[in-house]
Amino acid sequence: MTARSINAERLLGRLHALGQIGRDGDGRLVRLAGSDADKAGRDVVVAWIRAAGLDVAIDRIGNIFGIWRTADIADEAPVLLGSHIDTVINAGIYDGCYGVLSGLEVIETLKASGYAPARAIAVAAFTNEEGVRYAPDMMGSLVHVGGLPVEEALTTVGTDGTVLGIELERIGYAGAKKPGFLKPHAYIELHIEQGPVLEREGIPIGAVENLQGISWQRITVDGDANHAGTTPMSMRRDAGHAAARVITFLRDRAQASNAPTVATVGCMSFEPNAINVIPSRATFTVDLRDPDEGRLRAEEVALAAYLKDLAAAEEVTISVERLARFEPVTFDSSIVELVEEAARRRGLTSKRMTSGAGHDAQMIARIAPSAMIFVPSFGGISHNPREHTTDIDLVAGANILLDVVSHLAAQ
Amino acid sequence: MTARSINAERLLGRLHALGQIGRDGDGRLVRLAGSDADKAGRDVVVAWIRAAGLDVAIDRIGNIFGIWRTADIADEAPVLLGSHIDTVINAGIYDGCYGVLSGLEVIETLKASGYAPARAIAVAAFTNEEGVRYAPDMMGSLVHVGGLPVEEALTTVGTDGTVLGIELERIGYAGAKKPGFLKPHAYIELHIEQGPVLEREGIPIGAVENLQGISWQRITVDGDANHAGTTPMSMRRDAGHAAARVITFLRDRAQASNAPTVATVGCMSFEPNAINVIPSRATFTVDLRDPDEGRLRAEEVALAAYLKDLAAAEEVTISVERLARFEPVTFDSSIVELVEEAARRRGLTSKRMTSGAGHDAQMIARIAPSAMIFVPSFGGISHNPREHTTDIDLVAGANILLDVVSHLAAQ
């Protein structure tokens, strides 16, 4: 088994080819879910899946499946690999794509090697994992596990006013399959870490044993739009100032704690957004994450209490809208052990770790034993064109996936 | 002299009529400089000036002058009244328009009363006082006093990509007069306070003795766009967080001081502005004002020092662009005394005060003895459709202007 290895040139070649698809006028990689760029990326991936001799199945939410299934194993639940190919705005080329293309690479390698699986093996590219254009993120995998009705997902209105279902029809990826039609025996997702830990510690393989809980909120502060020159500081109801206080509160709280909680305000807008007018409204998002559900909930409670005090102190009104909430996920320990074992056999160090980002694996974990494999991210950089992983690490990760899959599909 | 009073019905009628011109589809009052709505407002005001029997003169930057000048006083420098009729987005009806229409009202009243002036009296509506579409604000009066070459002003590109000179040609207000052709003997601007002081103290007349200095800066913070879930708090270079620190610094500093300094962050934007990405860039404006030049400069220095420390502490880069800078202005004490005296004679209380907002008067003060008269603003609200002054206060202010002008034009 250890002699078998993936075709590094093919995998890396595809990764770079896919990374050129969806460049905008400024050269930025932008493949938002349901866009023309997404279609272009999907078309290429589907062509590669077909060329590998796999069956292609597309479900109503646009999830793409490439399935290697011989007649005699048609009834066995498949081992599922995968991730997503949609991107953020001005993305790197690895996030998601590495998992999808490695999954395909592993299946092609096994198929070509004469490996006889005891069950089907499939690779998935889930729709709208990033959630940039349509909320929530991880939508395709969430629909797959029944966590969101497909009708509701398809009627989602995007940040640009488009409707996801109409966009999927338009680009030819509104499939016929019922979401969830494929019930996996196990799910493994290979991904770049998107954080600095593996690189800093010089460890090539992360055996991801759990995933942080995520809490997304949109907060709106309403104050009074008065003249910047004539309103004494003491008489202001400044929505922008209140929003700034929330940001510094979150940072000060995180820094005073030893917990791994992370808190981010990524979106911010002021109204009327004029230089000489005190902001009457500030709208911003809060992204809270923690691997422990109790602690995550405590952070949400602390924020809510702070907002209440702030509203009273600043004489503003504050409203909170919950955008997404996922509890922390514990992955399947036996698959995590298989990852560690595979690394050991290839002479690679590995480290048990927590995923800080959300991934499709957290959704699939609801219906099947699941785990993830991480490889190092240069400087921890992600969601950025400088996202980078060395070719050696990329190939090593794909080979660990190969080993784990060949073990699981033999059962 | 005290028996003479303005025609309240005519003044208030015109104020409300002008306030209906330039309403957008949502009913918002929007007469940005050089726009179709501005043209509609100008056309009505010019028609009223002509109907009053005044000469109309329009200069190259579009400033409108209505001049009452008889043959025998043609060479005397006129007493100039005025303000502006352009507005912010979603404006109230008083800001600027009250000064222009009261100026016209005063001249009509004097003319009809048989008053024999020793010098001409003129009313001005200066172009682009608000500076919303074209920067800087107070542009027409700045050009009038020679503070900005007219060629430079006319080539200003607006926030919507238009060029002011082309827009003035288009709406028919690129006049032939050389800016500054009219050298006033004195200038008096009647305006709503746009702040809460007069209303709170129950005083109908503000004798404005000086005007705050204004410092406008645009600050750009550059950090790193990393993943919100995977980047430990201690490793972040969060541009949004640094921007928030600036806002709280300004507020804390203002609150710890007894000085009348006001500091406002009115504009803010984050990039990439995504919920799960640490902001790589935050761009915002800082509006600092103080009636004392030394203190204003000290505030600018304190902000610059804070930005330097912040850049080091947060490992971000910060760049600062100066958008506008006006030193505080001291108005002519003899005109301020005339305002106080006129109020006393009409049995009204008055208060010497500082203008917190910028006004055309601060420009004209460079070339002629100038002052302003304020009337109360309901709740201090301005730049807002809820801007309001009672009819009684509006009429009282115009009568004080009448008294001051009849005194000055008799000299």
UniProtKB/TrEMBL annotation, chains A, B:
Q: Name any one GO molecular function.
A: hydrolase activity
Tell me which InterPro entries the record gives. Amidase_Cbmase, Bact_exopeptidase_dim_dom, Peptidase_M20, Peptidase_M20_dimer
Question: One of this protein's Pfam families, by short name?
Answer: M20_dimer
The record's CDD domains line, in alphabetical order, gives:
M20_bAS
- Which residues are in the Peptidase M20 dimerisation domain? 212-312
* Keywords assigned by UniProt, alphabetized: Hydrolase
Q: Which PANTHER family match?
A: ALLANTOATE AMIDOHYDROLASE (PTHR32494:SF5), ALLANTOATE DEIMINASE-RELATED (PTHR32494)
The family this protein is said to belong to: Belongs to the peptidase M20 family.
Q: What is this protein called?
A: Zn-dependent hydrolase
Which species does this protein come from? Microvirga puerhi
